[in-house]
Specification:
The protein is α/β, with parallel strands linked by helices. The chain folds into three domains: about 150 residues, 3-Layer(aba) Sandwich (Rossmann fold); about 60 residues, no CATH class; about 50 residues, no CATH class. Strands 5-6-7-3-8-9 form a six-stranded mixed sheet, sandwiched between helices. Strands 11-12-10-13 form a four-stranded antiparallel sheet. A three-stranded antiparallel sheet has the order 2-1-4, with helices on one face. Helix 3 crosses helix 4, helix 3 packs parallel to helix 5 and helix 4 crosses helix 5. The protein is globular. The site of adenosine-5'-triphosphate (ATP) has 11 residues, from strand 2 and helix 1. Pfam families: ABC_tran. Keywords: ATP-binding, Nucleotide-binding, Transport. This is ABC transporter ATP-binding protein. One of its GO terms (molecular function) is ATP binding.
Length: about 290
């Protein structure tokens, strides 16, 4: 399922910063995106949503600049051009619960300036079909399950074939089967498009992203391939029968042994690293949340 497309930069951001009072939500973020799905990982409060909102032109940065798909949102015309090719799935999509799935997506299509009624209705049907919601398109959103609502939000983001898709934790709250289905949809969306996907699920990144950015305290801690992030943990994951006090983090696994990350003692039984291990080590264990 992993998207492999690379190539020239479609988005380049330089030194983006944004403060909320005394909080530096973004503190000099520079990054480069290409076509395909890039994962954005980071602990709570790292600045992921803020970065996505800036890149989706929902809020201007205090400092720094970016261009996306050749458009400069620092100018009024560039901002408009970028918005016309943008699909944004925010963390809390603002549904009107009494709208049906069709009415909501149609409403978004109108906002996206699809003014020809026939073409617009065809496009709404197309995106609802793409996310497998054709059968419930006449159902009110308040009666849909959480997973279906997420798919309505994705359909709305896909209206008008955007070249740049910004997805803020789209798989949160989904059961494993729905999450798998959603990953397939995002992988399809990533073919030929630039997709930035914020998530807390390291498996989302391992299974579907060709690049990954790790953000912490408003700064980029890592930018590269999922394989590079995993490789950071090579030789730094080991098993033990008791909790190892020298480990940066350690947790008891289902088999009763401990999985530790950090600097292993001599003779330790090394384990195959995962992307999550590489991610936790990148955060240096400081703000990593490890749930066994
Ligand atoms: N509108 C706001 N007003 C004040 N502070 C804000 C605002 N939005 C974000 N922040 C602060 O900026 C920092 C980054 O928040 P942000 O929501 O971008 O993090 P996040 O990585 O998306 O977190 P999470 O994983 O919990 O969604 C946090 O300290 C947050 O409290």
């Amino acid at each position: 399922m992993t998207t492999t497309s690379t190539g020239p930069a479609t988005l380049t951001a330089t030194d983006l910063s944004l403060r909320f009072g005394g909080t530096r939500a973004l503190d000099g973020v520079s990054l480069r995106l290409t076509r395909g799905v890039t994962g954005l990982l980071g602990p709570n409060g790292a600045g992921k949503t803020t970065l996505l909102r800036v890149l989706a032109t929902a809020v201007p940065p205090d400092g720094g600049a970016f261009t996306a798909l050749g458009h400069d949102p620092g100018t009024a015309s560039g901002r408009l051009a970028l918005r016309r090719t943008l699909g944004y799935l925010p963390q809390t999509p603002g549904f009107h619960p009494d709208f049906t799935a069709f009415e909501f997506v149609d409403y978004v299509a109108i906002l996206k300036e699809l003014t020809d009624r026939g073409a617009r209705l065809r496009e709404v049907r197309r995106v609802l079909e793409a996310v497998d919601l054709s059968e419930v398109r006449g159902t009110r959103i308040k009666r849909l399950s959480g997973g279906m609502r997420q798919r309505v939000a994705l359909a709305a983001a896909l209206v008008g074939e955007p070249g740049f898709l910004v997805l803020d934790e789209p798989t949160v709250g989904l059961d494993p089967e729905q999450r798998m289905r959603f990953r397939e949809l995002i992988a399809q969306a990533g073919e030929g498009r630039t997709v930035l996907l914020s998530t807390h699920q390291t498996e989302d990144v391992a299974m579907l992203c060709h690049r990954v950015v790790v953000l912490a305290e408003g700064r980029v801690r890592f930018e590269g391939t999922p394989a590079d992030l995993t490789a950071r943990a090579a030789g730094r994951v080991w098993s033990s029968t008791e909790r190892d006090p020298n480990a940066l983090a350690g947790w008891r696994t289902g088999t009763g042994t401990f999985r530790n990350i950090g600097d292993p003692p001599t003779g330790a039984e090394l384990l195959e690293p995962t992307l999550e291990d590489g991610y936790l080590l990148t955060l240096d264990g400081e703000s990593a949340e490890v749930t066994a």
